[in-house]
Every structure is written in C-alpha cells, then in structure tokens.
Amino acid sequence: MKFINRAFLMALFAVVVGFAAASQASAQGILSDILKRMDTNNKGLKSLRSNIKMSKHNAQLDEYDLYEGTVQYLPAPAKEKIRVRIDWTKPVEEQLAVGGGKYILYRPRLKQAIVGNVDSAKGNAEAGGALAFMSMSREQLKANYDVAYIGEETVNGSVRTWHIKLTPKSATSYKGADLWVDVNGMPVQAKVIEKNNDSTTIQLTAIDRNATVKADDFVIKPPKDTKIIQG
Q1: Domains, the chain, ranges and CATH?
Q2: pTM
C-alpha cells in the first residue's frame, strides 16, 4: 500500500509539473504574440486622438481622484520626443502639453501654469508619463523590463484586452507598470505604480488612430498675467 501511495504521489507530482510547464510555455507563446501585435501597432501609429480618463490612487488614504478629458498624441522612439496634449474637462478645466521631456500644465481658474521635467511630474502632469508606455517597441520593453503575461481582462465594460506587467530591470522612480492591450496591439489602458504604492491609471476610449494632428496643437500659450510655477 505504501508503494502504491508513493507511486501515486510521484505520478501526481509529474502531472502537476508537466501542467505547470505547459501553462508557462502557453503564457510565453501568448506574450510573444501580444508583443508582436504591439510592435505592428506601434510601427503603424503615426498619431492618436481619443477621450481619456485618469484615476489617481492615494494608497495611504485609499482615496481616488478621477479626471476626464481629450488627448492628442504623437508617439516617438525616445520618450523625450513624445508629444502629448491633454485638455481636462472634469472635474475642472486644465490644459497639459508634453514635449522635449518638458511639460506645462495651465490652470485657467487659478491663472497659473506649472512647468517642469516629465520625469519629476506630479498631479495631473503625470498623465504624460503614463502615456509614454503606450508607444514603446518590443525591443524597448524587453530591454528595460521583465514582461509577464497576467491574463485576459475586459476594459471599459466591453473591450477585450490582454493584461501584461512590466517590472523595471534597473532603478527607476516607480515600482512598475501594467498595460492592457487590445486585439489589435493597441494599449488602451496603462497603470504606473509608485514606490509608495500610489498609482496613476490612464484609460483611452473612442480612439482615432492616425488622426490629423498638427504641431501647433501641442503649444499652450497662457495669458501674460499667468503666474509661472516651477514643478
């Protein structure tokens, strides 16, 4: 009886190990397909216009701040060359422009504009940094992150996506990031997790790929009486 039990346990262990190995191989196959689709989408994406939602989570207080607006976006191989224009409409009107590694956040109601570097952006200006993940090539992702496949998930109630997790291979200002990629290889949601567990989640809807976007669209010129604040 002991021999039979031992043989059964060994056989069960072999089945479990084999199943785990097969599952891992399957996950790697899916991940490879996702990255390939993302690469195809990335190479064909010249511009983008869409609606945007942002959720900022304060982990210590467990509170969320929610924002809505529209975004215009020009991807680029280097993060510093990406150009973004976000016009927030809720809960208040604000305008954000990102380009050349710099940003300007104009707040009409306060008659002030916050300017600074994207890497040190805080508040609503962090949206530009989250969007940068959406234009990374397969080579950039593999070179800078350990990429893991999490599973299939639905975004915005109906959009089928694949969820992948990005863990930086070297020291960064954040802990990690997550991307939700649709069947066409387009990242429709991105989440950046800070070292203190605060997070910023960006979601795109009504996406217009390769829309006509002009360089002037990314220029924000506040009135002369606007107070300039270094961010």
Answers
A1: 39-230 (2.50.20.10)
A2: 0.80
